[in-house]
Write a structure and sequence with these properties.
Layout: H1 3-37, E1 42-49, H2 59-76, H3 79-89, H4 95-101, E2 102-106, E3 112-119, H5 122-171
Antiparallel strand pairs: 1-3, 2-3
Length: 172
């Protein structure tokens, strides 16, 4: 590089130096101001154990629980669950907005589901996440009780039929 080239380069650098310094500073300032104008969004999460009675669970039980967890992801996002949870949490949002703010994920290789709610109010997000888990658990407990009652009624009917059959055989 010759002295003339070097001095031309330095002259160009000195000429544009204020712009080279002010340009990035101005861009950083604009970026900061824009970021300050965006309201913060908070997340709250709650977990659901699909198979709460897993103390003596077999590998098959865990496999079934993992499969249930996958189907429960959609169940939790259903209108009745989300709307009831929103009412219980004191959150007045339409169903479409609830769907946008609520994520349900199957925790990989477990029987757990993670319910995550996003909101501008951190307390509302936490209330809604917890309410969703509570409402889902209540619905599932009610469904289990109905299934149990149906099975119980069927067994009682079979026992009654067998008893009549046995009585008929013993009379002969």
């Amino acid at each position: 590089m010759t002295a003339a080239t070097r001095s031309g380069f330095l002259a160009t650098l000195i000429h544009w130096l204020p712009l080279l310094i002010l340009g990035p500073l101005l861009a950083a300032l604009v970026g900061y101001l824009v970021a300050q104008m965006i309201p913060p969004t908070y997340q709250a999460s709650a977990s659901v154990d699909v198979n709460a009675s897993s103390a003596s669970a077999t590998p098959d039980d865990l496999q079934v629980a993992q499969q249930l967890a996958r189907s429960y992801v959609e169940t939790i996002r259903a209108r009745p669950i989300l709307e009831e949870a929103a009412t219980n949490a004191g959150v007045n949002l339409p169903y479409a907005t609830l769907l946008d703010r609520v994520r349900v994920q199957n925790v990989r290789e477990t029987q757990l589901l993670r319910v995550t709610v996003e909101d501008r109010d951190p307390e509302a997000a936490a209330r809604l996440a917890n309410a969703i888990v509570d409402v889902f658990n209540a619905h599932e407990q009610q469904a289990r009780a109905q299934r149990f009652d149906t099975s119980r009624q069927n067994l009682l009917q079979i026992i009654g039929t067998q008893r009549l059959d046995l009585d008929a055989r013993t009379r002969k």
